[in-house]
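Batch queue: ligand-bound targets. Current item pairs a single chain with zinc ion. No template structures supplied; prediction is de novo from sequence plus SMILES. Inputs echoed for audit trail.
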Amino acid sequence: MTGKRKKPASHTATARAASQPSTETTERGMSEVDRFLIDTAAQSEAADGAQGIAPAELSFPEIDPLATYWTELDLFCKKCAITHYVAFCTMLNAAESPHLVERARANQFNYKRCPICHTIEYVEHPWTFYDPARRLLVQVRPAWEWHAGGGEEWYAARLEDLFDRWAEHDVRIDVVFGPEQLIERYLQEGE
Ligand SMILES: [Zn+2]
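Prediction returned. Tokens below.
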């Protein structure tokens, strides 16, 4: 982008324009400064946008969508009114990560712990359980979605989304609301 190279020049010009208003009419001096500020803001926004998109596009093709995958979420503690990072597993591949299946079975998976007050809470964010041995893919959604009036219709719509997304994979799919429902339906001992 050529916008980046122009940046230092426009900073200099802004400084010069700002030091002059006493000799010129205020209105003219102000409008020049304003124009420089607007241009500079527009340029840096364009640059930020480009930077935000590029890394995702580059790294995306290398990710196996069915491999166990962790991400970092910025989560909020209501008690402390602070935001903290939490490692969150968005895809649990049961064949690859049997120890994580054991944690999920014990309902000790994808919880967060506040670094200040140490409160432990389930992270209300969708994640996916995939078991290649059973050709089963289950999306685990927050329980509140169901209780907030989503119910059967919401379940059907989410199931349809999931079906569209995984249509090319030979898997049985389901949607559950809350980790308890996943355990009840799919993680009983012996399964
Ligand atoms: Zn806290």
